[in-house]
Specification:
Blueprint: E1 5-7, E2 10-12, E3 16-18, H1 27-35, E4 59-62, E5 65-68, H2 77-90, E6 97-100, H3 105-116, E7 123-127, H4 143-153, E8 161-165, H5 171-181, E9 188-191, E10 195-199, E11 201-202, E12 207-208, E13 216-220, H6 225-238, E14 244-248, H7 254-262, E15 267-270, H8 272-277, H9 281-296
Parallel strand pairs: 3-15, 6-7, 7-8, 8-9, 9-14, 14-15
Antiparallel strand pairs: 1-2, 4-5, 5-13, 10-13, 11-12
Helix pairs in contact: 5-6, 7-9
Bound molecules: the ligand CC(C)(C)CCc1c(C(=O)O)[nH]c(=O)[nH]c1=O.
The site of the ligand CC(C)(C)CCc1c(C(=O)O)[nH]c(=O)[nH]c1=O has 14 residues, from loops.
């Protein structure tokens, strides 16, 4: 079967990759992604300077997923630029993704300049789930901030750029966000990030499971799947066709991958399940995806991409 998928001028052997933040913190984790069956990979969201992140415990596995408040631990943009430079020399034909983020407006711009001025030849994903103004909602939940950042980025950034979005829950928000995104020459959007500020409790101690933010953290895994399917579908219905979609949230089986593609996803990222199973998950997901495609009579992804039926 033909599992190739394309974003802009980039073609990948298959649609699978890690979600930023999972299995992509350092060289060892990134090398394990390169060695896996995934079609591509993305680095941990990088800030201008390295960050230690939040106090532990800052991640917990749950029966139906995960909760995390990592606090953006990362080795800094220079580390990841160095890694991708080495990677590109060894794998000139296999494009990868770099994720960037800023805790202030200026830092978002500064870290984007670092990529623009580098030899990085892959795709860039800017994480809009970071608040830029203390006390204000995260960027993607603040239309004015979103416009301000995208206006500034596209005034100098000429490499393929996509945005990582948090989940939206209101149809008017889909309309509003899609209207903003359609104004920019985005290569892709990635929907979605973890579901913000969930809370889970240790039954033995009646204590919040994670330490940061009084136990509040992003929810991933099976909990996220219905929302990820809806966000992929809603944005596919609203965005210009030249803006591709990476679907992220709740993938654990090949059928989950198939369903995100059915909703319109071009690529599919795996977070919680990758954290729990390790990079060998990609070989399993590819086998299961191909089995599902065969069961349905498909031999390639465009045959069923976006083909969700409604009653
Ligand atoms: C939540 C932020 C710390 C603002 C951004 C980094 C991030 C984190 C994180 O590093 O805590 N976790 C997620 O599930 N998604 C994210 O985008």
């Amino acid at each position: 079967l033909d599992l190739t998928t394309t974003i802009g001028n980039y073609t990948f052997a298959n649609p699978l990759m890690n979600a930023s933040g999972v299995n992509c913190f350092d060289k060892d984790e990134l090398d394990a992604m390169v060695a896996s069956a995934s079609g591509s990979m993305v680095t941990k969201s990088a800030t201008v300077k390295p960050r230690p992140g939040n106090p532990e415990p800052r991640y917990a596995d749950l029966t139906l997923g995960s909760i995390n408040s990592m606090g953006l631990p990362n080795l800094g943009i220079d580390y990841y630029l160095d890694y991708v430079a080495t990677y590109q020399a060894a794998h000139p034909a296999d494009a990868i993704f770099m994720s960037i983020v800023g805790t202030t407006f200026d830092d978002n711009i500064a870290v984007a300049h670092r990529i623009q001025d580098s030899d990085f030849a892959g795709l860039t994903e800017i994480n809009l789930s970071c608040p830029n103004v203390p006390g204000e909602p995260q960027t993607a939940y603040d239309p004015a901030q979103t416009v301000k950042i995208l206006d500034a980025l596209f005034s100098f950034f000429t490499k393929p750029l996509g945005v990582k979005l948090p989940p939206f829950f209101d149809l008017a928000q889909f309309d509003q966000m899609a209207a903003i995104l359609n104004r920019y020459p985005l290569a892709f959007i990635n929907t979605m990030n973890s579901i913000g500020n969930g809370l889970m409790i240790d039954a033995e101690t009646d204590t919040a499971l994670i330490k940061p933010k009084g136990g509040f953290g992003g929810i991933g895994g099976a909990y996220a799947k219905p929302i990820a399917l809806a966000n992929v579908r809603a944005f596919r219905q609203r965005l210009n066709s030249n803006i591709r979609i990476i679907g992220t949230g709740g993938v654990h089986t090949g059928r989950d991958v198939y369903e995100l593609i059915l909703c319109g996803a071009d690529m599919v990222q795996v977070g919680t399940a990758l954290h729990q199973e390790g990079p060998q998950i990609f070989a399993r997901l590819l086998t299961e995806l191909q089995a599902e495609m065969t069961r349905k009579g498909y031999t390639n992804l465009p045959e069923f991409r976006g083909a969700l039926k409604t009653l």
